[in-house]
Design a protein that fits this description.
mainly alpha; single chain; 16 helices
């Protein structure tokens, strides 16, 4: 199937996911509600099995899959395919495709397109998971609802030709149901049963239901918590914030104010190869063995200038009270007086 046909199908799918009216009418997809509702109930039962009958190996396998799935999302569909912050050779692309597919978060094409729309039209009606519509909506509620018409309208303006032209990405999109079912449900259920004689129930409810639900909520933190609770050292005009808890739980995606200020940085954080950013460590490892290359980053000078110009003053180095700031730095940083609305110098 060629790229033009794929593009037409993707646009048709986006249209089906939206309302025909231009008003933000709420229309719930009850099928998705039923599926995710079952997953959550199954996850609770899986947690019960962890403490009653599941083998330790099965619990450890579920924990491994959580990291496996998370890195497929962060290093794969997010930093590689959505933002093109680095390039990957085919072996790494195949690995990341499998890792991402264990999350059952749509296809790479769909996820990347929506994420590019999110960055270009953040917290507008065109944002698929706008935090302006509330915590529950941005966290997971957007999955239950048909998309606002602006999502489809603005989504057509986003260039995703690089994804259409990637044979691996096209293959996964064309066969997404089979690939996602195999990677997310079938193999994680069969592996514990085959390798350490786990029961079907323990394998499914722990390694699939519990692991998937837990991981899905952690991914949701980036859209909700990391857009609501934290500071904005790089750009106070953005809704995205820095949140360490989200960063720890999502392998480095919680340094979100930086990421929205500099979305082309492969590390998605000024901290680089930090203990909270396992995704960067993952990419760095594959860069050392030659599977990842052309890693994009941001110069410290550009970070400093942006922080002084638009930050909220909370940066640990370039904040307002840093003793190393020169007078030139201070004169270059302007803020608005809340009383007069005029610019004053800190």
């Amino acid at each position: 199937m060629n790229a033009t046909i794929i593009e037409n199908k993707l646009e048709a799918e986006m249209e089906l996911e939206t309302n025909e009216e231009q008003s933000p009418k709420i229309e719930i997809s009850w099928i998705i509600v039923a599926i995710l509702g079952f997953n959550h109930v199954a996850a609770i039962y899986g947690l019960y099995l962890v403490f009653t009958s599941a083998k330790i190996a099965t619990t450890l396998f579920a924990i491994f899959l959580y990291q496996f799935t998370m890195l497929g999302t962060t290093a794969g569909v997010h930093r590689l395919w959505a933002h093109r912050t680095y390039k990957a050779k085919w072996p790494l692309q195949v690995l990341l495709m499998i890792m991402f597919s264990t999350s059952y978060q749509f296809s790479v094409l769909t996820w990347s397109r929506d994420h590019r729309v999110h960055h270009k039209f953040t917290d507008t009606n065109a944002d698929p998971y706008s935090s302006k519509r509330g915590f529950l909506f941005s966290h997971m509620g957007w999955v239950f609802l048909k998309k606002h018409p602006d999502v489809a309208k603005k989504g057509k303006e986003i260039d995703v030709s690089d994804l259409y032209n990637n044979p691996l990405v096209r293959f996964q999109h064309e066969h997404k149901t089979a690939v996602l079912m195999l990677c997310c449900y079938v193999l994680p259920t069969l592996i514990p049963m085959y390798f350490w004689n786990e029961t079907l129930a323990n394998s499914f409810y722990v390694a699939v239901a519990l692991r998937w639900t837990f991981t899905a909520h952690l991914v949701g933190l980036v859209n909700s918590v990391a857009h609501m609770f934290g500071n904005k050292p790089y750009d106070k005009n953005l809704t995205a914030v820095e949140n360490m808890s989200a960063a720890i739980l999502t392998s480095g995606e919680g340094w979100h104010n930086y990421h929205h200020a500099f979305p082309w940085d492969y590390s998605a954080s000024e901290l680089g190869n930090h203990w909270t950013n396992n995704t960067t460590r993952f990419i760095d490892f594959f860069a050392r063995i030659g599977w990842a290359y052309d890693l994009k980053t941001v110069s410290p000078d550009l970070v400093r200038k942006r922080t002084l110009r638009t930050g909220d003053g909370s940066h640990p180095v370039w904040g307002w009270n840093d003793k190393d700031l020169t007078e030139e730095d201070r004169l270059g940083a302007t803020i608005l007086s809340p009383q007069s609305g005029t610019k004053i110098f800190k």
